[in-house]
Design a protein that fits this description.
By secondary structure, this protein is α/β, with parallel strands linked by helices. The protein has 3 domains: about 140 residues, N-utilizing Substance Protein B Homolog, Chain A (Orthogonal Bundle), CATH 1.10.940; about 55 residues, Sun protein, domain 3 (Alpha-Beta Plaits), CATH 3.30.70; about 200 residues, Rossmann fold, CATH 3.40.50.150. Helices cover about 45% and strands about 15% of the residues. It is built from 19 helices and 14 strands. The strands form 3 sheets. Strands 5, 6, 7, 8, 9, 10, 13 and 14 form an 8-stranded mixed beta sheet that branches. The longest helix has 23 residues. The mean pLDDT is about 95. This is RsmB/NOP family class I SAM-dependent RNA methyltransferase. It comes from Shewanella yunxiaonensis. Pfam families: Methyltr_RsmB-F, RsmF-B_ferredox.
Length: about 425
C-alpha cells in the first residue's frame, strides 16, 4: 500500500474500534473518544480531527449507512466511511479516495447538498437502486413521541439533525463587541446572535477554549442559543431570590446571575455532588458570588417553602433536542428514554413548586422534543395545582405568541428545547 493508503487503513481500524465500542457499551461517543485520546497521545491534531469527525458522521448518517449494499462486512465498512466523507464533504481527500478504493467504489467527490433529497442523490450515484428514505435517519419510535408534524416539518427537522451545530457562547462581564475583538486578536471570528445581545457563535472553528484568556477569566461560557432562551424566559430581576432546582454544572445558574447583574441570590441544587463542584469552579472563574450550591439528597426539597421569587426546573429528560449535537444518542437510546421520564419530571416539578412564593414564577424546561415530557407533564401539573397559571410567551426566534414554547433546531441553528412559564396566584 502507498503511505496514504496505510494511513487510511489505520484510521479505518481505529474508527471501527471506537464505533463498535460505543454501540456495545452504550456509552456516549464523547466519553469513549475522550478516553481513547487520553490513552493514545500519539495522534496529532489532524489525526484527531479525521477520527472525531468521521466517527460522529457515522452516527449522523447511520440510518442510511445500514442500507448500503455490500459483498461482505469489510467492504460495507469502507463503503460507510466513504459515504460519510461524501455526505459531509470532508477535506482529507487521499484518505477518502483510499476508502473508496477499498470499498470497490468509483472515484466520486460529490457536491455540497442543500436538501436531504440531494444528499440521497449523491449516494445513488454509487448505489443505484437503493432507496434512502429521510425518515430512516432517526429511529421510528421518535416520530410517535412528537406532536403531529406534516411532511415538510419532518424533513426540515431531519435536515437540521444531519448538519453540524455551531459552537454558541454567552458573553459575561464585557460587551459582545469587546469579546469579538478579543477573539479576533486570538485568531477566531465570531458572529453575533440576531436575538440575544450577549450571545455569539464561533461556527465550526476548531478551538481549545482552555487556552483562551476570555474563557479562563470567566468572560465566556459555552451555552447553546436554545439553552439561553430559558434564562430569558425566566427574566430574573436584580435583587430577586431564585432556585435552580436541577442545576447540573450550572450553565443556567450562571446565566441567571448575569441577567441579575450579580445582585440577589441563586440557590443551585442537584443530586450529584460532582456537578455542583463543577458549578462552584465556574462561578469562581466568573467572579459570581450570588450562587449558593445545595445538594438535593432526599425526597424533601433542600430549600424553604414559598421562599423564592422564581424557581427553574430544567428537568432531567431524554435529551432528544440535542440529537443534532449528539447523533450517537439517536441509536443508543430506546423509546423508554422518553416514556420512563414523565413520572420523575412531574414529581420534581411538584416538589419544586412548593418553593415559589405567592406571585412568584415557576419555569419548567427540558431539552426534549417529546410531547410526553413537555406538554404532558405541564398539563398534569396544572390539573393538580390550580394555583398556577400559564403565561403567554413570545417565541424569541419566530415572534409567535404561545403558552407552550418549543425551540426547533432549524429555527435559529440551535439545539431543541421546550419551556413554559407559570405564575403562582
Amino acid at each position: 500500500m502507498t503511505p496514504a493508503e496505510k494511513y487510511a487503513d489505520s484510521y479505518a481500524k481505529t474508527i471501527h474500534q471506537l464505533f463498535t465500542e460505543i454501540l456495545q457499551s452504550r456509552q456516549s461517543a464523547d466519553r469513549v473518544l475522550a478516553a481513547y485520546f487520553r490513552l493514545n497521545k500519539k495522534h496529532g491534531g489532524r489525526d484527531r480531527r479525521i477520527i472525531r469527525e468521521t466517527l460522529f458522521a457515522l452516527f449522523r448518517w447511520y440510518g442510511w449507512l445500514k442500507l448500503l449494499p455490500a459483498a461482505n462486512d469489510e467492504q460495507l465498512w469502507f463503503r460507510q466511511l466513504a459515504a460519510c466523507g461524501l455526505l459531509e464533504q470532508h477535506s482529507w481527500q487521499p484518505t477518502l479516495e483510499a476508502w473508496q478504493l477499498r470499498g470497490g467504489l468509483l472515484p466520486h467527490s460529490g457536491t455540497p447538498w442543500q436538501s436531504l433529497t440531494q444528499a440521497a442523490e449523491q449516494l445513488q450515484l454509487w448505489f443505484a437502486g437503493t432507496d434512502f428514505p429521510a425518515e430512516a435517519l432517526v429511529p421510528q419510535w421518535f416520530w410517535q413521541q412528537l406532536s403531529a408534524m406534516n411532511d415538510t416539518q419532518k424533513l426540515t427537522l431531519l435536515q437540521s439533525f444531519c448538519s453540524r451545530p455551531p459552537l454558541w457562547l454567552r458573553v459575561q462581564q464585557l460587551s459582545t463587541t469587546d469579546a469579538k475583538q478579543a477573539l479576533a486578536t486570538a485568531g477566531f471570528s465570531a458572529t453575533e446572535s440576531a436575538y440575544f445581545e450577549d450571545a455569539i457563535s464561533l461556527g465550526h472553528q476548531s478551538i481549545n477554549l482552555n487556552e483562551l484568556t476570555l474563557y479562563k477569566d470567566g468572560q465566556l461560557e459555552v451555552q447553546d442559543l436554545a439553552s439561553q432562551v430559558i434564562g430569558h424566559i425566566c427574566n430574573p430581576q436584580a435583587g430577586e431570590q431564585w432556585w435552580d432546582a436541577c442545576s447540573g454544572a450550572g450553565g443556567k445558574s450562571l446565566q441567571l446571575a448575569s441577567l441579575m447583574k450579580n445582585q440577589g441570590q441563586i440557590v443551585a441544587s442537584d443530586i450529584r455532588q460532582s456537578a455542583l463542584l463543577e458549578l462552584e469552579k465556574r462561578a469562581a472563574r466568573s467572579q459570581c458570588n450570588i450562587i449558593k450550591s445545595v445538594l438535593w439528597q432526599s425526597e424533601t426539597a433542600p430549600v424553604a417553602t414559598q421562599a423564592f421569587d422564581g424557581v427553574l426546573v430544567d428537568a432531567p429528560c431524554s435529551c432528544t433536542g440535542t440529537w443534532r449535537r449528539n447523533p450517537d444518542m439517536r441509536w443508543l437510546d430506546h423509546e423508554t428514554a422518553v416514556t420512563e421520564k414523565p413520572p420523575l419530571q412531574l414529581d420534581i416539578l411538584q416538589r419544586a413548586s412548593n418553593a415559589v412564593k405567592s406571585g412568584g414564577v415557576l419555569v419548567y424546561a427540558t431539552c426534549s422534543l417529546a410531547d410526553a415530557e413537555n406538554r404532558g407533564v405541564v398539563d398534569a401539573f396544572l390539573a393538580a395545582n390550580p394555583q398556577f397559571t400559564l403565561q403567554s410567551l413570545e417565541h424569541p426566534f419566530t415572534g409567535e405568541r404561545t403558552e407552550y414554547l418549543t425551540v426547533w433546531p432549524y429555527q435559529a441553528d440551535t439545539d431543541g428545547m421546550f419551556v413554559v412559564r407559570m405564575l403562582r396566584q
